[in-house]
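Re-run with default settings, no changes from the original entry. Doing this only to confirm the output is reproducible before filing.
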Amino acid sequence: KRATRVSVRIDPTAREAVATAPAPRHALDAISFASERVEWIAERLGALPPPVIFKPGVYVPLRGAIHRLRHAEAGRTVRLDKTSGPTPILLVPGPKESFRDKTRAFFRAAARTDFAERVEVHARTLKVTPRSISIKDMRSRWGSCSSDGRLNFSWRLVCAPPFALDYVAAHEVAHLKEMNHSTRFWKQVERAMPDWEPAREWLQERGSALHAIGDT
């Protein structure tokens, strides 16, 4: 609905090309536009990192540190085992057929905890109050802020180093002061997180790998 022109982009999570049109009558134009860019689409899709599917034995980052997933025969909640070697183990209990969903739920809950903590800190610094915080399976953005103060964040950021998640939290909280990307907005980001630039650079250079995490 927000589209103003025909375009095509890569959805790194779904691993597909998405053609967009500003109205139904332009749908064929969007298809044609994408068809003319088949080589570019193939190149971009081919450059995506391999998917990291939540299943036993897979290595996955959590808060920037590599963990290994393992099925647990007993227990009710996902727990961390740091005694089995240099790589921490995430023990996921329950039926094996629910392993993926239970692991995803754990990562989403961890993201909610981390974002709630960082948003509270930045909101206090900037003297603002968000209306709500939601953790979503976002595909094109790391976070968003609605005009009525609702903050949304991608759960996959909990896989990144904490400073990257912190930057996105600061970025969206700053939008509660400035709903734009003006100089005034970036001054609010700097107030909340003075050393924000390395985090943005990390996301620009390495963030695409996060989209490959988790079975879609």
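The helical segments are 27-35, 38-46, 99-126, 162-174, 183-192, 197-206. The radius of gyration is 19 Å.
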